[in-house]
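task queued by scheduler; priority normal; single chain, no ligands, no partner chains; default sampling; output format set to structure tokens
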Amino acid sequence: MNINISRENNTITVYFSGRLDTPAAQEITPQMNALAEEASNSIILDCSELTYISSSGLRIFLMLRKAAAEKGGKIIVRSITNDIRSVFMMTGFLNLFEIH
């Protein structure tokens, strides 16, 4: 799992690449917690290269969503693959996030 974070104006984009499974989620949690502190901005979660997401990965997305809701920010999930879309549909995440 690789992530790349870019900042431009008031928008933060997180590019996920690989598998967001339990070990990967544990590895990136400190970076995601730091992002939650900046959740008053718009945060785009780019999933174009995300090949798998586990419940631990979904939990990270929910944590960011909650932080954004508390701070007046916005979370956008962008470019999900059909496999990730299926997971989002089965878990109800399609209704929780703005999907682009």
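post-processing summary
- The radius of gyration is 12 Å.
- Strands lie at 2-8, 11-20, 42-53, 74-78, 98-99.
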